[in-house]
Structures
1.
Amino acid sequence: MSFNDLGLKAELVRAVSEKGYSTPTPIQSQAIPLILKGRDLMGSAQTGTGKTAGFTLPLLQRLAATRSPKNGRRVIRALVVTPTRELAAQVAESITSYGKWLPLKSAVVFGGVSINPQKQKLIRGVDILVATPGRLLDHVGQRSVDLSSVELLVLDEADRMLDMGFIHDIRKLLALVPKQKQTLLFSATFSDDIKKLANGLLKSPALVEVARRNTAVETIKQVIHPVDKSRKRELLSHLIGANRWRQVLVFSRTKHGANRLAEQLITDGIDASAIHGNKSQGARTRALADFKAGKVQVLVATDIAARGLDIDQLPHVVNYDLPNVPEDYVHRIGRTGRAGREGEAVSLVCIDELKLLRDIERVIKCEIPKRIIEGYEPDGSIKAEPIVRGRPQTRNKPKKRFQHKGKGQSKNTAQHGKNQRYKSGRRAAA
Ligand code: AMP
């Protein structure tokens, strides 16, 4: 199957082949013909599956087939709403590159940067607008955006928009677009809230599902390195140095933790920077660009900042802290092994995180292999302070501990024994 077979215009096929893609990914071959027919669509697909091109290409084709209705003046005919600024920027970039041979104009608006240059661009007229919900509503309030001519609406990563508390903004936006339109909703997971939103919004939608819900991408090699909390940073530096990792995305649970870790890695002689919600948009964009260009070796990110990041061929993802929400583990490791490439996801897990690990393994429906790194064996005398909603919880929780190393074991047996004990620790914490 080629992009030609999907019924796409020559201009789009040309742009796609200039990007170096010859075969559509599964979501593209399923979604593109349906969207071209004008169907509403509910897509279950995570970042990394090629879903952006899956909706961008047919969106461009549908708009190119009709002219802007208002006396030749461009009006917003397609609106793409995304949860994060980074994702908005990436979708806008895709629209620009796939649409380079078509006479369509697009703009992207998100918060954290000055609103005026965005207004200037909007005043000149665009066919396609990519936006995050808050800034889009700001523009609506300031009358720089008119959504009354929207023919095609895309809600990207709808689950994350709800997780981030955007439901009220989304509802406000839905009241501003025409009832009669084509709607595409993408979500990695389908909670009851998403279904409720979809029910009120989509008309007999086609369902397109590529990766089964919550299934960790198969090409990703996953491993857990059990280690004490106080030695995680040291182990991370060791892994980066010993394995000569060149481009590593590291996840931290907190903004403060991300900053501190990036600083500590720098003192270890590793080029690192942090990306999170407290950083200015300029600093986030710069950090991401430097990381993509290979100028920065390690990018430490929080879940929200990293959501939807499109970094080609990212070989290593490290969970410095396990996420509180098991589904975030799937999103995080989805940054590697993209579009069929091999990737590796390493998690540094301390005894406090055994409950989180158990929840993750339940969601991905498999046990992640554990491997203790020599010299970083967990100290069996440390008591667990299980993490509940991001904070260590010491009261009313049974204390767990790693068992002590037995006497008289050979090194290999000792290593095997540690892995076994770690597993029993897991079960004990269950
Ligand atoms: P997405 O899921 O939209 O974030 O896309 C994931 C990555 O796959 C991006 O880097 C795309 O540029 C890339 N990609 C999209 N379509 C294809 C394709 N047909 N073949 C190879 N790579 C693709």
2.
Amino acid sequence: MLASRGLLIIQDLLYYLPFRYEDRSNTKELRALVPGEKATVLARIEQASLSNFQRRSLGFFDATLSDGTGTLLARWFNGKHLVDWLIPGTRLALFGKIEYDRRRLAMVMVQPEFEIMQDDDEEEQLHTGRVVPVYEAVGKISTRVFRQLLHRVVEQVDLLDDALPEDIRRRLALPGLASALRTVHSPQAGDDIRLLNEFRSPAQFRLIFDEFFWLECGLALKRTKARKADGIPFELSERVREQIKRMLPFKPTSAQKRVIQQIADDMKQPHPMNRLLQGDVGSGKTIVAAQAAIIAIENGYQVAVLAPTEILAAQHHVYFRSLMENLGYTVILLTGSSTAREKLQLKKLMAAGYAQVVVGTHALLQQDVDFHKLGLAIVDEQHRFGVLQRLTLFEKGAPAGRPPKLSRDREGAAVFNGADAVRAKPDVLVMTATPIPRTLALTIYGDLDVSTIDELPPGRQPIKTKHVNETAIEKVWTFLAMQIAKGRQAYVVYPVIEESETNAMKAAEQMYDHLTHEVFPKLSIGLLHGKLPAEEKEAAMRRFQRGEINILVSTTVIEVGVDVPNATVMIIEQAERFGLAQIHQLRGRVGRGSHQSYCILVTRKMNDIARERIRTLVASNDGFHIAEMDMRLRGPGEFFGTRQSGVPGLRIANIFRDGDILELARSEAQALIAAPPEHADLHGVVRYIQEHWQRQYGFVEIG
Ligand code: ADP
Ligand code: MG
């Protein structure tokens, strides 16, 4: 059971921290209870009963408790499972809010947390009479069992190495590691329980700091290493400027200008660029990336453009071609679905340096692809891959090319093949459309420099977002017909939850049939989902782009990047089932031209959180606000799980709650790596970081 939670060794257990503390050093006598307060009491069950257990209700479980000084009623909803546990005679510790029930003339606790106490248990002192830690149960392993386990295990805490450099620890007045762990697992009488419950005690601060510190040290090391590597010092000649001017179809916004300046300055450096280009959907990142591409190309280098999906790759291909072909550059597309012959042909073009821009999915990196002279890799929408994949991706260094082939000349001396055999690392520009709160950015993208486009192109009208119940769908179709009569186009989207692309596909197919045959028999409707062959996907997309399709019914394969300015209506079906960020991305597919655009969220039954999400979307178009709300509504657990968000598995630290500690840890980590003090055992630190990263994130390769 412990293993199922990743608790494999003693150290894991030591870092399995209580989520709450309860002050049982002064539990209240029942007669002293006051309505409205939260209290912990110890009492014995006198009577217990399950009532109202019928077809639809899971029943109430009521218990009458007494401690010799008074009585208390406790009630749990859906309490059937308690019947076998809470039998008369059982002693309980209860924690909850006290209310006074006027009808029954008694003090009650509704839905209290409780723990069964054992009589005459020697270890009972562990669970009462002091501030006790409360652990989240794992399967049948209750908080009580954890308390016992940790009570024993914490004895061994002195065996742990405290790797945090001593001078940092002293300067910040942090407790030692052993003492911090001892405190969190068995707080003493003097410890401030309020601070503990807010995760702000010195001990918790130290542990949270540690976690961020080692993460940021690893990122800083990566960053320093990358900074020191040989890169390409691109030149910004007059010709580069002219080509950029020739390419630009419009005047860049001042945000775009500022950002391209940052990128150009970075590209001039003799070290590789590792930069994140952040901006809300539709803020115009691609054209900025295209300008960076021109800098590389005019210096005689090739550019790779990597997209997360084939559709997006195809779209970038079209866009880059339209921008670049009349400058005399060749742009090719290489995806997993190209045929073997095509691939061979394309690879030859690339290897010989005939193609200046190569667009592809990330598979481009895995395939045996050789660039003649790769100078810049543009990676789009990287956030979908998560930090670990991104780090491995860069670590593999595929864009840097494989090591030069070594051969021997006649005298037997080593020669490298190719004129620039020892290749410099290319510059890397990562584009993301998910505006993420700063603290999260520091963690996911802690090894990158960040440029932000915080302004939309001029003439955009804010998208109007409306919420409609499924029962009123006819009105939506009427509205849609009007927009199409004006010459506009629309998307109808079925978002995909996790791995259920198939369901979304079925829903999309049904809707496609319904719209084609019943609602809009005279219009041209297209269908797009992930299971279609690549050519069909591309064809549908291209027809939509050319305006030959009025309504495109789709799954979330269109979530990122697709750019059709004439599309003004985004209808999202089953909107209650999907995350804020996802819907915001989808909504970003409209509002890209000068026409007023609309996003219509169609829902069925909703719970409170879904209702709150829909409310947020209707009220705000601001990606940053939406990202914050997303974190808040989903809660740290889900938002920060490695799987969903790509944030490294943080066990104690919570990016949302602990932003200030993160900033502190980050600056300490950067200072340490930038200028290690003479006496610091840097090798020891690096070794620790490597072990820590290996354990925590599953791979090393950082220093
Ligand atoms: P992002 O990738 O950031 O979501 P895009 O680069 O796809 O945004 O740009 C969105 C749309 O805005 C595109 O149609 C693009 O041509 C247009 N656009 C970008 N920058 C400008 C600008 N400065 N002025 C006018 N239109 C712009
Ligand atoms: Mg884009």
